[in-house]
């Protein structure tokens, strides 16, 4: 069922993206209500469609109650119905996303990151070609609204350029677009923030890990997954070495990104 799961991930990300674009163009002027409806309606669509297409699979969603039965399940869909809710509520910003990933028996096996306002979906059914080579100067994705001190210090150590942008999914896939060379986060995320981007990044041949170089793993009892690194493999050793030089305090005081 592997390739069918890849295709389904893309289809679901696209369907949720279409719904969100329609909602955004509906004329709703209360931005708080736009964000609330975006989260809720995309969650409802994704969970309904998964119940139809994969009724035996478990689901972990940012917007849903955590069904602990997933801990005994062999297959769990990990979804973020609207990654970058803040950015979604600031038209015409396009740096928000939909995340759909499938975890199966310990591994991410399928995923899609829909970027509806950019009319682009990156998915494991047709992994995008990654940029190759070693950049002259590293570019690091960073939160547009609240750049964390940890990444600012890391950029100084690497003599890297910071490139501000919105949601976690957009920052992660910016490495595939060639907009940046690395996305480093150390301030507290959850499994739904990174599962789909990591699945796509791995399929495309990028380096993905925790900031100490250990593997990213999913479907844990506590879905907190506080840090990650996604980057070109050619620069992973250099970035990991620079991170290792930072004090623990610099890491733990980073604010949570969107």
TrEMBL record:
GO MF, any single term: metal ion binding
Signal peptide: none
Organism superkingdom: Bacteria
SUPFAM superfamilies in the record: Carbohydrate phosphatase
InterPro entries: CysQ/Inositol_MonoPase, Inositol_monophosphatase-like
Binding annotation for Mg(2+): 62, 80, 82-83, 193
Cofactor: Mg(2+)
Keyword Metal-binding in record: yes
GO annotation (BP), single: sulfate assimilation
Keywords: Magnesium, Metal-binding
Protein name per Swiss-Prot or TrEMBL: 3'(2'),5'-bisphosphate nucleotidase
């Amino acid at each position: 069922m592997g390739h069918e799961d890849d295709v389904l991930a893309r289809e679901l990300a696209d369907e949720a993206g279409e719904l969100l674009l329609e909602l955004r163009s509906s004329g709703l002027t209360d931005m708080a209500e736009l964000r609330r409806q975006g989260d809720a309606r995309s969650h409802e669509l994704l969970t309904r469609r998964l119940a139809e297409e994969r009724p035996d699979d478990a689901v972990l969603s940012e917007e849903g109650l955590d069904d602990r039965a997933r801990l005994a399940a062999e297959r769990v869909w990990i979804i973020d119905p609207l990654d970058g809710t803040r950015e979604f509520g600031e038209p015409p910003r396009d740096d928000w996303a939909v995340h759909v990933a499938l975890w199966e028996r310990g591994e991410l096996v399928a995923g899609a990151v829909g970027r509806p306002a950019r009319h682009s979906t990156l998915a494991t059914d047709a992994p995008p070609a990654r940029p190759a080579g070693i950049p002259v100067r590293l570019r690091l994705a960073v939160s547009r609204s609240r750049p964390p001190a940890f990444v600012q210090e890391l950029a100084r150590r690497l003599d890297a350029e910071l490139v501000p942008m919105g949601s976690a999914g957009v920052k992660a896939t910016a490495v595939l677009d060639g907009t940046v060379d690395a996305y480093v986060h150390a301030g507290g995320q959850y499994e739904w923030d990174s599962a789909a981007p990591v699945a796509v990044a791995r399929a495309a041949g990028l380096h993905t890990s925790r900031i100490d170089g250990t593997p990213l793993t999913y479907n844990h009892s506590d879905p907190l997954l506080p840090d990650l690194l996604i980057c070109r493999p050619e620069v992973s050793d250099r970035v990991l070495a620079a991170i290792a030089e930072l004090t623990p305090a610099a890491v733990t005081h980073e604010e949570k990104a969107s």
